[in-house]
Amino acid sequence: MKWIGLIAVVLTGALLLSAVGDFPDFGDPKSPANGGVGDFSVSQYYITHTEQDTKVPNVVTAVLADYRGYDTMFETTVIFIAGIGIIAILRSHPPGGRRGPAHPIDATVDGDHQRIIIGITCRIMIPIIQIFALYVVAHGHHSPGGGFQGGVMLGASFILIGLSRDLQAALARFSERRFIVLACLGVAIYAGFGLLCLLLERNFLDYGVLDGFFHTDPVMARSHGIFAVEVGVAFTVTAIMFAIYANLSSKGRLDEGL
Amino acid sequence: MILDLVSMLLIAAGLLFFVGAAVGLVRFPDFYTRMHAAGKGDTLSSLLVISGFALHEFKDFEGMDFILALKLLAICVFIMMTSPTSTHALIDAGYEDGIEPVIAPDAENVLGDPTSRQP
């Protein structure tokens, strides 16, 4: 079995390495990404047309979620698969069906006087972190940010609960069922908006056709479509970040954590 | 003009404390004293440098510069809250882990036996 895997890895690696030779030279002004041939420069097109195509000031967000929406959709799927893989490998239910920690954990901050400074600081900071994470998701059109960054921050806020108190306190807010459902929902939102465009007889992820759905003109509909898929990305990234932490820190038992 | 001068002074003082923190981090003998240098020096110097930036951006108290200065001051508040807490958490973890402090040869270890303290 290992040999089959090794052969597959070596073959894929050789294929990828052989494709490197076909890349344009580094810094080549004639390469498709830099200058292109004639008027077909990709980067020039993005820089000059993003504003009128999508009404999104942030070119990076527009390229990521609209022009190259397929790429981002499968990036999200890669994160989803990585998280599901970690859950599938690590998650184990202890024999005897014991649920929860062996000894009851006092969930109040004041009950554990050694941690009161950390507990109070985290209690103040976590809501601010979460609001800022939502702002990063929603403001990805106008400033650096978007689904991946905001999702990571939102997931990190739940990890902070797990670190500053214990894993049970974090799981009480973001249970296993919830993060698995949320991870699936994120990918479903992204692919669902793509399919919705397909149902309305346009290309997959061509948000311009959703103007009736969003009650705007086709250009603004692309902007709203980008926001919709960013929310999907944020859902998946949040859930998978926390799922990876919860499973790794408790050796897959989801009981006591660190 | 005066605002610029004050901001320059603040940034220079912050850099001085940064040097102190860096020297302390390298030169101090054990975990606790090193964290003391890194935690205190880093917090104060970051605060001084960033508030110097904020003062520099205040200018005429209007427009985007003013908003930028307010954002910098918000960063100051967050550093003031999080940096000492993380230092505290690290030292607490080191103490629970039983790291021995370096003390004078004839002094008594007032921290007691670190391994006796369980979380």
Describe the structure.
- The complex is a heterodimer of chains A (258) and B (119).
- Chain A has helices at 2-20, 42-54, 59-67, 69-90, 116-138, 147-164, 167-173, 176-199, 211-214, 218-249.
- Chain A is an all-alpha fold.
- The two termini of chain A are 35 Å apart.
- By secondary structure, chain B is an all-alpha fold.
- Chain B is built from 3 helices and no strands.
- Chain B has helices at 2-27, 31-58, 63-96.
- The radius of gyration of chain B is 19 Å and the shape is elongated.
- Chains A and B meet through α5 of A and α3 of B.
Estimate nothing, just give the exact number of structural domains of chain B. 1
Order of helices and strands of chain A: HHHHHHHHHH
Report the total helices of chain B: 3
**How many individual helices of chain A?**
10
Percent range of helical residues of chain B: over 70%
Residue-averaged pLDDT of chain A: 85
> Major sheet of chain A, described briefly?
none
| Structural class by SSE content of chain A | mainly alpha
Alpha carbon gyration radius of chain B: 19 Å
User: In angstroms, what separates the terminal alpha carbons of chain B?
Assistant: 54 Å
Report the C-alpha radius of gyration of chain A, rounded: 22 Å
Distance between the first and last residues' Cα of chain A: 35 Å
β-strand percent of chain A reads under 5%
Largest interface, counted by CB within 8 Å of the partner chain's CB:
A-B, 7 and 8 residues
